[in-house]
Amino acid sequence: MKILVLNAGSSSQKSCLYELNDTQPDRPLQPLWEAKIDWTHQQGVSELKVKTAKGTQFEEEFASESRTDTISRMLETLWKGETQTINDLNEIDIVGHRVVHGGQDYQESTLISPDVKKAIARLAVFAPVHNPVNLEGIEAIENLLPNVPQIAVFDTAFHAQLPPAAFVYPGPYEWLENGIRRYGFHGISHQYCARRAAEMLNRNLADLRLISCHLGNGCSLAAIRGGVSIDTTMGFTPLEGLMMGSRSGSIDPGIIIHLLRRSDITAEKLDNILNQNSGLKGISGVSGDMRQIGEAISQGNERAQLALDIYIHRLRAGIGAMLASLGGLDALIFTAGVGENSAFVRATACEAFGFMGLKLDGEKNQQVQGDEDIATADSAVRVLVIHTQEDWEIARECWKFY
């Protein structure tokens, strides 16, 4: 069976085509075809990059009026031109979509129907940057492949079994009745990493206590016991929790009240400040990209150093909170852009937990290639670097429906 995966973001669109047989493989397969569209470099222009399992690569820039038209152009490269991988789009058996917010109603991957589409649109109030673009991807596929089943794989679903003590906010109870609660995000990534950790350790996932650190431009932690998320740092929105690239993470809500009392501050301005101009970017004044922060520090930039210090402080504090929820730890996982690539962040985060017998192998930490255990042989806690594969996890979820 051929599974098409669409992973839509606010400024990019990734897509992969996998071919699975009747037996689902344990390890991720290489996509037959994968493509990415980027809208960030020039307004009204889409940058398309495509590569195939055979090694063919293709790039182009083109003017784009709508996301639907752009997705259609991207999918054309599946069955036309030098990156042709299939003869006809009708060879696609099922399509899986990452959908960021499933609310309280959708706690597992779901076959998309008109009612599900309405729910995704309704839940856009909780995820205004992501759910609308997820819906556009669904509708683009409907136009191209009206008879092919589509699956919504919700980022919030992995956190559906959080205990009430973890997901209920200590405000008025009416908040909970109105859907204001902790939902958690990055669930597809955390789910994949937990399963991959069990494979790497040759252990039963049901017996493991894990902390998964998804550290990219967006950052979140998940405390995972027996394969189930029991605590996480992101909340009602992806703004809560750790310091991130351009997002503040958790702050004193009194700051919001203080700022709103100023006549020149609106909800829209606050949204922009907290989501786009805070975090590493806001403190450093340089960038939300950890690589550029490092370069600025090497040039003596004190604000960049402060930004990194805050980032590490809050990461350690978050890991400590997850540790308390678990009551112990078998493995600490680092994943996503910063987690997979920053040896410094991994080392400084782990330093704080030497008291519990966690010992990092410095050489392994510096020379990570692929998925690897970078703890010393005698470490009481394993430390794993795992390349997260959200697209493959979405494909796995689709396979269950076929």
Automatic annotation (TrEMBL):
Classification via NCBIfam families: ackA
Residues involved in Mg(2+) binding: N7, E390
GO cellular component: cytoplasm
Record pathway: Metabolic intermediate biosynthesis; acetyl-CoA biosynthesis; acetyl-CoA from acetate: step 1/2
PROSITE patterns membership: ACETATE_KINASE_1 (PS01075), ACETATE_KINASE_2 (PS01076)
List of residues binding substrate: R98
Keywords: ATP-binding, Cytoplasm, Kinase, Magnesium, Metal-binding, Nucleotide-binding, Transferase
Species, as recorded: Tychonema bourrellyi FEM_GT703
Protein name, as recorded: Acetate kinase
Subunit structure: Homodimer.
Residue(s) at site: Transition state stabilizer: H186, R247
Gene of this entry: ackA
InterPro entries: Ac/propionate_kinase, Aliphatic_acid_kin_short-chain, Aliphatic_acid_kinase_CS, ATPase_NBD
Subcellular location as annotated: Cytoplasm
Cofactor, free-text remark: Mg(2+). Can also accept Mn(2+).
Family of this protein: Belongs to the acetokinase family.
